[in-house]
Specification:
- By secondary structure, this protein is of the alpha/beta class.
- The chain has two domains: 2-194, Hen1, N-terminal domain (c-terminal autoproteolytic domain of nucleoporin nup98); 255-460, Vaccinia Virus protein VP39 (Rossmann fold, 3-Layer(aba) Sandwich), CATH 3.40.50.
- 34% of the residues lie in helices and 23% in strands.
- It has 16 helices and 14 strands.
- It has helices spanning 15-19, 58-62, 86-95, 97-101, 108-111, 130-137, 174-188, 198-207, 218-225, 230-249, 255-260, 265-279, 294-300, 315-326, 371-382, 419-432, and strands at residues 2-7, 27-31, 34-43, 48-55, 115-125, 143-150, 160-172, 284-288, 307-312, 337-341, 356-360, 386-392, 435-442, 453-460.
- Strand 11 (356-360), helix 15 and strand 12 (386-392) form a beta-alpha-beta unit.
- The longest helix has 20 residues, at 230-249.
- The radius of gyration is 26 Å and the shape is elongated.
- The model has no long low-confidence stretch (mean pLDDT 90).
- The structure holds S-adenosyl-L-homocysteine.
- S-adenosyl-L-homocysteine is lined by residues 242, 289-291, 294-295, 312-314, 317, 343-345, 360-362, 365-366.
Length: 462
């Protein structure tokens, strides 16, 4: 299995810096399923090519080592050792791990610059669909040259195989090229060797950052990357959609901020949460769906909160939280705050064992049919001693002069609830668990429609 990457950007041998592999050396890497080798068939100032060759032993595969396909004789004559497959994708991410992050101390400017790159993959499966292959890469700006491979050159009558000899050319950052290959190769491989679970969503979002949400085939890419598992695909697409809304709004005020601003609701909400936590003598807090870290910032001002963890599903938000909150802390304070990426749809040991969990204006961003999973994740597995959940009170929306009737407060909200609906939901959780629940409101209380934000405070008796 072979992949070559060439550049004519001069001095071309700087490709070695970007890949963290010296052009004069041939290096071997032992992977779980075979050996990867990197060497440079050409390395001059004007043109440089790096080759990644992956050797997989088909007999090991057939006999039950990593990636084994136990189906009789077929296992011994599979395409795995020869075609670009999920194995190659994993090899790219392991052998070129640092290059994929876009970091390069010795040539950072070059890593940040689009340079002319050509990737060649001599045997790429695409079930004979040239259009699909082009549809994956052309929207990303690649010039795609493909040649359909014959089943057997010696027997032209047998016709074509499902494989293509592919050349992708583009002026692009090397890290972007590697991310595109890392995602697209398994998308084209219907026979992925690894088990696909929610961790793969995280990888897809990480490697797809900045391009997947606007790719015309994002649904198909996501579904195939996740081995067509419908639940995972739906969660991933929901997260991609949320990322897009956040990317569009992160540097300006969101529509929700603008709508709620006249009553400085956000400030009131955060202050109410902080004072509730203080009144309960809480020390360790996890802020779930922490977003850009507005609550984290306030929490850090209170010395009684010793340990604070922020979790969000969206990378971009976490990056902003990192810049605006974590990096601004004095060194001796940094240990109090940790940020992690994670989803509230999946059980996660890292969020277990806290005195309190805050879930501020988050549930309305989830699909209704995911709330059950969220309930279990928070109240069955994470089990904080107390949990504060806030969400808009939709009845109050008529009071916002700048919000058209019937519209929700934010484009990513999947629902907004009445007080009755929210209380029924929260009471249901209490009935099904050891938590008791009390309700509060945030913002001015209107005699008819109530307060703009509603809050449930769950507490567990030791
Ligand atoms: N709590 C913050 C942010 C609210 S916006 C504040 O009050 O300012 C909602 C946040 O929930 C977003 O950052 C979004 O990425 C996050 N979110 C939505 N669904 C999530 C999920 N399933 N798991 C974790 N975070 C999620």
């Amino acid at each position: 299995m072979l992949l070559t990457i060439s550049t004519t950007h001069q001095p071309a041998t700087d490709l070695g810096y970007l890949l963290f592999k010296h052009p004069d050396k041939c290096q071997a890497f032992d992977l779980a399923f075979g050996t990867a080798r990197v060497f440079y068939p050409e390395a001059s100032d004007t043109r440089c090519t790096a080759a990644l060759v992956l050797d997989i032993n088909p007999v090991d595969l057939a006999r039950g080592k990593a990636g084994a396909n136990r189906q009789t004789l077929a296992a011994y004559v599979s395409d795995r050792p020869y075609a670009a497959s999920s194995f190659l994708s994993v090899a790219i991410s392991q052998v070129f791990r640092t290059a994929m992050t876009g970091r390069c101390e010795q040539r950072q400017d070059l890593a940040d610059t689009p340079i002319p790159l050509v990737a060649k993959i001599p045997v790429l499966p695409s079930r004979g669909r040239e259009g699909f292959l082009r549809g994956l890469f052309e929207p990303l700006g690649y010039q795609v040259n493909v040649r359909r491979l014959a089943l057997d050159d010696a027997f032209p009558d047998w016709g074509n195989s499902a494989y293509f000899d592919v050349e992708l050319s583009h002026s692009i950052r090397l890290s972007d090229l590697l991310s595109h290959l890392h995602v697209m190769i398994p998308v084209l491989d219907d026979d992925k060797h690894y088990y696909v679970n929610e961790d793969e969503i995280e990888k897809l979002l990480r490697h797809g950052e900045g391009w997947l949400s606007t790719h015309p085939l994002k649904e198909e890419i996501t579904s195939r990357y996740l081995k067509r598992q419908r639940g995972l695909t739906r969660d991933a697409l929901a997260q991609i959609a949320a990322e897009e809304v956040i990317a569009e709004t992160s540097d300006r005020e969101t529509s929700e901020d603008i709508i709620e601003k006249p009553i400085s609701l956000n400030q009131q909400r955060l202050e109410t949460v902080v004072s509730t936590l203080k009144a309960n003598g809480v020390q360790k807090i996890v802020d779930l769906g922490c977003g850009e870290g507005k609550l984290l910032k306030l929490l850090l001002k209170e010395p009684t909160f010793l340990e604070i963890l922020g979790m969000d599903v969206t990378y971009r938000s976490l990056e902003i939280a990192q810049e605006r909150v974590l990096e601004k802390l004095p060194t001796h304070q940094k240990g109090r705050l940790q940020l992690i990426q994670g989803s509230l749809n999946y059980r996660d040991a890292r969020i277990a064992g806290y005195d309190a969990a805050t879930v501020i204006e988050v549930i309305e961003h989830m699909e209704l049919d995911r709330l059950k999973a969220f309930e279990r994740v928070l109240f069955e597995f994470a089990k904080p001693k107390m949990a504060i959940v806030t969400t808009p009170n939709v009845e109050y929306n008529v009071k916002f002069e700048n919000l058209p009737i019937g519209k929700l407060r934010h484009p990513d909200h999947r629902f907004e609830w009445t007080r009755a609906k929210f209380q029924t939901w929260a009471q249901g959780i209490s009935d099904r668990s050891k938590y008791s629940v009390e309700f509060g409101s945030i913002g001015n209380i209107d005699p008819e429609v109530g307060a703009p934000t509603q809050m449930a405070i769950f507490t567990i008796a030791n």
